[in-house]
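Quiz preparation item.
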């Protein structure tokens, strides 16, 4: 999962301090892939450096001053590109797919279109892997192709399942917006 794009998606929802951003991340994605505060602040520094995020306010705090971050138009463009780009099938991809679906729903983007594009990418991968399986010259090569095929099939099952549950997930994501909006 790409933490930078996840943080961009959360900042698109609302401007946030680093601490608030980590809390929002943990609530929505922490079970799949936890992050530390240091990673949040390092990623924010990179996003600011790259012009995808900007500091929109500094407030005094009990310790260091608290910076409030906002996504820039360039950040929105980069997030749009990332959300629209299907991922190559690979083991452990579900967390990235889940994140993209959730962020798309949070932002009002077409999660169903993302799942459709992802389904096509997986079907293409299955065709290639099936051909490789048929042409395998050794048991090892055939077994490796089977391994990859089974993971792609599992992802496809999840994609179908997620597509059928989009309305319920959208409602749940809307319910999560409550007090987070600033």
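Solution:
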């Amino acid at each position: 999962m790409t933490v930078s794009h996840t943080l961009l998606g959360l900042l698109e929802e609302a401007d946030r301090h680093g601490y608030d951003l980590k809390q929002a991340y943990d609530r929505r994605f922490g079970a799949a892939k936890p992050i530390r505060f240091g990673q949040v602040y390092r990623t924010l520094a990179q996003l600011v450096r790259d012009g995808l995020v900007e500091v929109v306010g500094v407030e005094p705090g009990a310790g260091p001053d608290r910076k409030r971050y906002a996504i820039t138009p360039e950040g929105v463009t980069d997030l749009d590109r990332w959300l629209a780009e299907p991922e190559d099938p690979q083991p452990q991809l579900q967390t990235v797919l889940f994140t993209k679906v959730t962020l798309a729903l949070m932002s009002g983007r077409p999660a169903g279109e993302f799942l459709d594009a992802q389904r096509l990418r997986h079907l293409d991968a299955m065709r290639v892997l099936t051909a490789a399986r048929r042409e395998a010259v050794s048991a090892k090569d055939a077994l490796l192709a089977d391994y990859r095929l089974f993971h792609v099939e599992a992802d496809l099952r999840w994609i179908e399942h997620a597509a059928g549950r989009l309305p319920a997930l959208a409602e749940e994501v809307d319910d999560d917006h409550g007090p987070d909006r600033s």
